[in-house]
Design goal:
The structure holds 3 protein chains of 3 kinds.
Chain A (H helix, E strand, L loop, with lengths): L1 H31 L4 H21 L4 H25 L4 H22 L9 H6 L19 H5 L4 H18 L1 H9 L1 H6 L4 H23 L1 H16 L5 H29 L8 H19 L13
Helix pairs in contact in A: 1-7, 1-10, 1-11, 1-12, 2-3, 2-4, 2-10, 2-11, 3-4, 3-10, 7-10, 10-11, 11-12, 11-13, 12-13
Chain B lengths: L1 H5 L5 H26 L5 H7 L1 H14 L7 H25 L4 H26 L9 H4 L7 H30 L1 H6 L4 H40 L5 H24 L6 H19 L5 H25 L7 H9 L11 H22 L4 H4 L14 H14 L5
Helix pairs in contact in B: 2-8, 2-10, 2-11, 3-5, 3-6, 3-10, 4-5, 4-6, 5-6, 5-10, 8-10, 10-11, 10-12, 11-12, 13-14, 13-15, 15-17
Chain C lengths: L23 E10 L2 E11 L4 E5 L6 H8 L7 E6 L11 E4 L13 H7 L2 H4 L7 H13 L15 H14 L4 E5 L7 H16 L3 E5 L6 H4 L2 E6 L1 E7 H4 L2 H8 L1 H11 L5
Parallel strand pairs in C: 3-7, 3-8, 5-6, 6-7
Antiparallel strand pairs in C: 1-2, 1-4, 8-9
Classes of the chains: A mainly alpha, B mainly alpha, C alpha/beta.
């Protein structure tokens, strides 16, 4: 099955894995900062971002759309902060106001503009099209060394690879400020750290990861990978360093198993067509979290409460 | 067209949808207020996304039983089942593990939704390419809605409003002050559960009209908007209901007035427009008023501090302070007080000394505790009380601190 | 005096060169929450090598004073100088112990990692934690009697132990000026003794300590200087002089002080 596997499944699996890692890394800090739903908000505003990018440039250009989506994410984050700070509204509600309004705007634009001719629709935005990212030029494992075949790789792969590498680099470079400001923001300020810039950089990094992943796999995976692997990982350990490693492991596991189950599961059950890989990856990540919540060694809050 | 739509002259279905959306808006605004006051607004996001697998399952079951897979009542029942399961899962995650509520919400919404998408693709392959049309629950679709569906939505909306009306007292109490509610013997968990049940009902009624992504907006935006207009939880409830109803009705009417104007987004954007106006211009909490008030407060503080510095012949450290003093004609640009400045400074200084004495005297304790550093002492103490204090100052030879 | 007359609120501020030898000097500082000043026009001068208690009733602005000095909450007006320099240039000379309840103790980390956070400035962005850093962290933990708890998950600590870890982290900062926010609040007697011993040893080393304090009965034993505030400054000076009935009455209001007087056996001044 080598040739077929390389052609049909290798690239989607690789993209799924890289997207999962790119989201899970910043997800660890978002979950610890009680900002897990920022991922939810960002993935919703990607839609208006790409619609606006399409309307402005008039073409389906991936880079333009990514820029549009990233811009929308930044607008959303600023809007949330504006509502939260100036309107003095609790963060959850502020998020709810901002992302639903932007999403509604995106849907309205989509219906108003003639985008039906291009591959730009709500379903795509939600589910992604992981299954269609096949490597047509591949003939077998040998193609990995064949420059001609490599040139035919779907462009989503290098893109998500770059972004995954960027999130990794970001996490390593800013490890110390991220950790300290997440644990004790006041102390971080006293040390001279610009804590609001650190927070903003985290959200922007998450937005870039969300946009790149969204491009390939749709928004469900984005939300699931921001939250489920880090949440499950938190229940496995009491050390941040170890938690991040676990979260990456869970993300990779969910992506691989989810893709395989989606592609081959129905066949094993006697069905004919594969089911949504994005949906299945999210489902597997949820099962991982459920198992962690039931059996993981550090699932309960430990020791004395803070006001003991 | 728009006028006709707003005055309900676009035919039965459009009229029913507009009325239904209005009722839905009222119910959503009011039910959302309870969530908002409990600081759990985004729970609605998890509930609404968790309806998708239920819709898929209901469709599969109904088809397997030989029925019409698109029966709205059946789909709503399925949606209610998985939404309930999602709520339980969320509750369990926050109770039994160390995870915080936001992580539980995000996990439930993404996983349930992901599973729902898996089911939709299963249905697609079962129905061999025929469109099951369940995708319209994602964003809502009122065009081509059956008459029976429109009636169902209008009636269910009315029932939800009625239920909220009947339950408003215990729910307001619990949302506003759960501790007090428990102390008078109220079963807080049960009221909470009822609240969630109502939110779930609203979500399910709203699925067909605005879709599961945007129903969240109707549950969150009107209460947040209402909060700008009142500090009283009872009032917030009804203002939110009214705003939600208005957004629902107007949005649905605009949408009916022309093709390619989807109902859900228009309702949400109407609600958001009301929100934006409130955020900027509401009296009391609006950004404009708060900003103006802050500027005024800052000016008063600097002026007062400047006067105290002049009185004590201390240097004025900040340019802004000096600029204010100069502009008010109280000091020269080089920091030397004018005649008027000297008088005002002496008065400010004397007031400070009076406050210091007043704080020491038992009987003034309550009055003095309200002092914020700016208020004229004449507003808090009577003239003869002030004279008495002045006598003590003069006797002690005290001046400015 | 014109050389230090440049701060618009919220903008950059210069130090107060005239007070260059003072660890901390505050002039005309006001902090408001909404429309109500929490601290009004506060002047404060901390003497080198002193141990100063900031006292005052609840809501008098004690913690706010500390946080505004450190730039954690914004100032509406006023200037702060640390060893004659603006705060931004003197951060390495300040150590800070926040209130215990201000962080989530469920954070996934160990005691030793929290102490190492105190060395973040010298470690920089990517500097590796070396053996000497680790040894110093152990030494700091030893000073607060927590050496055996280094590997413990912070969520497993008692309230007093949490407070000691925060103090150890401050020690790891290796600063000259220590600012502590209610270090004795809600801790057991053994922890209180351990903390005051450390603070006194800091003073013996010539360092300066400022603590928000709420227990009037220990002010005389623990501190040599006192700063009494109730939104504005009531008194500032040596404990032996400023910690008297008249000032306490003014800070705490008549009735409250009357009860306290008996306990403190201050007698009339």
């Amino acid at each position: 099955m080598g040739g077929e596997f390389v052609m049909l499944s290798l690239v989607p699996i690789a993209i799924g894995v890289l997207a999962a890692i790119a989201c899970a890394l910043p997800g660890n800090f978002l979950v610890l900062r009680r900002q897990a739903l920022i991922g939810d908000a960002i993935s919703h505003v990607v839609l208006p971002g790409i619609v606006v990018a399409f309307l402005v440039t008039g073409m389906v250009n991936s880079w333009a759309m990514m820029a549009g989506a990233a811009g929308a994410a930044v607008v959303a984050v600023m809007l949330i902060e504006l509502i939260r700070r100036l309107g003095r509204i609790e963060p959850g509600a502020a998020m709810g106001v901002a992302f639903t309004a932007l999403f509604a705007f995106g849907v309205l634009l989509l219906e108003q503009s003639d985008t039906s001719s291009v591959h730009l629709d709500v379903q795509h935005a939600l589910y992604g099209n992981l299954e269609s990212l096949i490597w047509v030029e591949a003939t077998g494992w040998g193609s990995l060394l064949d420059p001609v075949a490599l040139a035919g790789l779907p462009p989503e792969l290098p893109r998500i690879a770059i972004v995954a590498a960027a999130t990794l680099l970001y996490t390593l470079l800013l490890w110390r400020p991220l950790k300290i400001s997440t644990f004790d923001e006041g102390f971080a300020r006293v040390l001279g750290m610009r804590t609001n810039l650190i927070g903003l950089s985290l959200v922007i990094m998450a937005a870039i990861a969300a946009v790149a992943a969204f491009d390939a796999v749709g928004s469900i995976i984005v939300i699931a990978m921001f939250i489920c692997p880090p949440a499950a990982a938190r229940l496995m350990t009491n050390r941040l360093e170890v938690q991040v490693l676990w979260s990456v492991a869970f993300a990779v596991f969910s992506a691989v198993i989810g893709y395989v189950l989606a592609g081959y599961g129905p066949l094993w059950l006697g069905g004919e067509d594969a089911v949504s890989a994005a949906g299945m990856i999210a489902t597997v990540s949820g099962l991982v979290l459920a198992i962690a919540a039931l059996y993981a060694p550090h699932r309960k809050r430990s020791g004395a409460p803070a006001d003991a | 067209m728009l006028i006709e739509a707003l005055t309900l002259q676009l035919g039965y279905n459009a009229t029913l949808v507009a009325i239904g959306a209005g009722l839905l808006g009222i119910a959503a605004g009011a039910a959302g207020t309870f969530l908002f006051l409990r600081k759990r607004a985004l729970v609605s996001d998890a509930i609404s996304h968790a309806t998708l697998p239920g819709i898929g399952l209901a469709f599969i079951v109904m088809v397997a039983l030989g029925g019409d897979g698109r029966n709205l009542a059946g789909l709503m029942l399925g949606a209610a089942l998985t939404a309930g399961a999602g709520l339980l899962a969320m509750h369990w995650l926050t109770r039994r593990t160390r995870l915080a509520e936001d992580a539980a919400i995000g996990a439930v919404l993404s996983v349930f939704f992901g599973f729902g998408v898996v089911l939709l693709t299963v249905i697609q392959s079962l129905s061999k390419g025929r469109q099951a049309g369940l995708e319209e629950f994602l964003l809502g679709a009122t065009a081509g809605m059956l008459y029976a569906d429109a009636v169902l939505i209008a009636v269910a909306g009315a029932v939800a409003v009625l239920a909220i009306w009947l339950l408003r007292r215990p729910m307001t109490l619990v949302a506003f002050d759960p501790g007090f509610a428990a102390s008078i013997g109220m079963n807080v968990p049960r009221v909470d559960l009822t609240m969630m049940g109502l939110v779930m009902a609203v979500t399910i009624i709203g699925l067909k009209v605005v879709g599961l992504v945007l129903i969240v907006a109707l549950l969150i935006i009107p209460p947040v908007t209402a909060r700008f207009w009142s500090n009283h939880s009872g009032h917030v409830l009804w203002i939110a209901g009214a705003l939600g109803g208005l957004a629902g009705f107007v949005g649905a009417a605009i949408s009916a007035s022309a093709p390619s104007l989807p109902t859900g987004p228009l309702i949400v954007l109407t609600a958001f427009a009301l929100f934006t106006v409130s955020l900027l211009f509401a009296p009391g909490r609006g950004i404009l008023v708060v900003w103006l008030r802050h500027r005024r407060h800052q000016r008063r503080i600097h002026l007062r501090q400047g006067l105290l510095a002049l009185a004590q012949e201390l240097p004025i450290y900040e340019r802004y302070t000096l600029r204010l003093l100069v502009r008010a004609g109280l000091a020269r640009p080089d920091g030397v007080p004018t005649q008027a400045g000297r008088a005002r400074a002496a008065k400010a200084c004397r007031d400070e000394a009076r406050w210091a004495i007043a704080r020491r005297i038992h009987s003034h304790e309550a009055a003095v505790s309200r002092y914020d550093g700016l208020m004229p002492i004449e507003q808090v103490l009577t003239l003869d009380e002030i004279h008495e204090i002045d006598r003590q100052i003069d006797a002690g030879g005290g001046g400015c601190a | 005096m014109a050389e230090f007359a440049d701060t618009t609120p919220g903008k950059r501020s210069q130090g107060l060169p005239a007070l260059a030898d003072k660890p901390l000097a505050v002039r005309g500082m006001t902090v408001s929450y909404g429309q109500k000043p929490a601290v009004f026009s506060l002047d404060m001068t901390v003497e080198d090598g002193s141990m100063t208690a900031i006292i005052g009733p609840n809501g008098a602005g004690k913690s706010t004073t500390l946080k505004a000095v450190l730039g954690i909450v914004p100032r509406l007006s006023g200037m702060v100088s640390v060893y004659g320099a603006p705060l931004a240039k003197a951060r390495h000379r300040i150590a800070y112990v926040p209130q215990r309840a201000s962080v989530d103790w469920d954070f996934p980390t160990r005691v030793i990692d929290v102490v190492l956070m105190g060395m973040a400035r010298e470690l920089g962005l990517l500097g590796l934690v070396r053996e000497r850093h680790r040894e110093r962290a152990f030494h700091c933990l030893d000073r607060v009697g927590m050496k055996d708890f280094a590997e413990r998950q912070i969520g497993q600590l008692s309230g007093g132990q949490q407070q000691r870890v925060f103090l150890a982290r401050a020690l790891a900062q290796g600063a000259d000026l220590y600012l502590l926010d209610e270090p004795f609040a809600g801790v057991d007697a053994a922890t209180e003794r351990a903390i005051i011993d450390v603070l006194k040893s800091l003073k013996d080393e010539g360092r300066t300590v400022v603590a928000v304090h709420h227990d009037l009965s220990t002010v005389r034993d623990y501190f040599d200087r006192v700063m009494m505030i109730n939104v504005r400054k009531v008194a500032e000076g040596r404990v032996s002089e400023a910690f008297n009935e008249a000032n306490l009455q003014q800070a705490y209001g008549g009735r409250l002080a009357a009860n306290l007087m008996d306990q403190l056996q201050l007698g009339g001044h």
